[in-house]
Amino acid sequence: MIVDELKLTRSYAFCRVWGSAEEHVLHVHDCLEIGVLLKHHLEYRFGDRTYKGKPGDVFLCRPFEPHWSFAEPNEPPYESILVLFMPSALKGMPDWNRLLLPFYTNEEVPPYIPGDSPYAGAICKAAEEAALAQEQQASNWMTRQYMHLIDILLQVSDFAASYAPSGVDQQRPAIRLDIMDAIGYLLQHYTEPVDGTVLLDRSHSGKTKFFHEFRALTGLSPNEFLNRLRVQHAMDLLRTTSSPIIDIAESSGFGSLSAFNKQFKQYTEASPREYRARMTSD
C-alpha cells in the first residue's frame, strides 16, 4: 500500500480520468473522493471488498482508506469523474460537518451508490456539469463547481439517511444516532482542545459503550479519529500555504510540535518538512 500524493492546489477539484485493466497497488490519500463512472465497466476495490461498477454508479472513498479502480478485462478503458475535496472546502456552510459524516462512518454507509438510484443520477449529472464548466472555461466556473460540489454532497447525505444496514440490531439505531452526533461534533471542533466528557454527554452512554460504538462506526478510537482529522488538516495546509510548520501544528489542534511530528509521520511515512518539499516541488 502506498500514500498517493495528490497535489491539490485548492480545496476541491473535479477531474476527468480514464483507467485501464492494469493491476495496481491499493493506495490511500488524505482527501475525500467521489468516483462517478461515466463509460464502460470497472472494478472498485476497498481493502478486501470488490465492487463491479457500471456506468452511472458512484463510489465513495474515505480518507486514508485503501482503494483502487481498474477496467474489466478485455474492455476498453473506463471514463469517470473524480470529485476530490478537503473538509476545509465546506467550512462556513450550514451543517457542513454533517455533510462529511458519510465519509467518516465506515460501517454506517457502503462506499457504493448504485446507478439506478435517484441519488446517483443526480450526482452524475452534477459532476458532468462541473467538469464541463471547467473544460469550457465558463464564466465563474470555480463557483459553479462549488455549487455542484454542495449538491453532490447533499445527495450523498440523503442516500446515507435512506440506507438501512442489513443485519443490524434494531435496538441500536438511537445509540448510533447519538454516536453520530458525537462524531459530527469532532468534525466541527477537531482543531480545538476536545473534552472527552462533552462527547460522552452527547452520546448519552457510558464510557465503555461509547468507545465500543464509536469504533464500530469509524473503525477507530475517538483519539485515533481526532488525530487523523488533525493530520489531514495539516497535510492540506502544508500543500496550500507557506505557514511555518509550528503554526500549522498549532492550528491543526496539536499541543506540541513533537506530538505533531509523531502523528504526521505515522500517517504519511514522512516528516511535515519532507512532505511539504514533495508537494511543492515541480
Key features of this structure:
single chain, 282 residues, alpha+beta, Jelly Rolls, Arc Repressor Mutant, subunit A, five-stranded antiparallel β-sheet, three-stranded antiparallel β-sheet, 17% strand, globular, activator, Tscrpt_reg_AraC-type_HTH, sequence-specific DNA binding, DNA-binding transcription factor activity, AraC-like DNA-binding protein
Could you explain the architecture of this structure?
It is a single chain. The protein is of the alpha+beta class and 282 residues long. The protein folds into three domains: 2-162, Jelly Rolls (Sandwich), CATH 2.60.120; 173-219; 224-280, Arc Repressor Mutant, subunit A (Orthogonal Bundle). Helices cover 46% and strands 17% of the residues. The strands form three sheets. It has a five-stranded antiparallel sheet with strand order 2-9-4-7-10, covered by helices on one side. α2 (118-135) runs antiparallel to α3 (141-162), α4 (173-189) packs across α6 and α7 crosses α10 (272-280). Residues 180-278 form the HTH araC/xylS-type domain. This is AraC-like DNA-binding protein.
CATH homologous superfamily (4th level) name of the largest domain: Regulatory protein AraC
Number of contiguous helices: 10
CATH C-level of the largest domain: Mainly Beta
Number of strand elements: 10
- What is the terminal-to-terminal distance? 24 Å
Q: Structural class, please?
A: alpha+beta
Q: Summarize model confidence as the mean pLDDT.
A: 88
Order of helices and strands: EEEEEEEEEHEHHHHHHHHH
Second CATH tier, the architecture of the largest domain: Sandwich
Portion of residues in beta strands equals 15-25%
Low-confidence stretches: none
User: Cα-atom Rg, whole angstroms?
Assistant: 19 Å
Strand order of the largest sheet: 2-9-4-7-10
| Overall body shape | globular
Described by strand count, sense and barrel closure, the largest sheet is: 5 strands, antiparallel
| CATH overall fold name of the largest domain | Jelly Rolls
Number of domains: 3
Helix content: 40-55%
Domain HTH araC/xylS-type: 180-278
Pfam families: AraC_binding, HTH_18
Protein name: AraC-like DNA-binding protein
GO molecular function: DNA-binding transcription factor activity; sequence-specific DNA binding
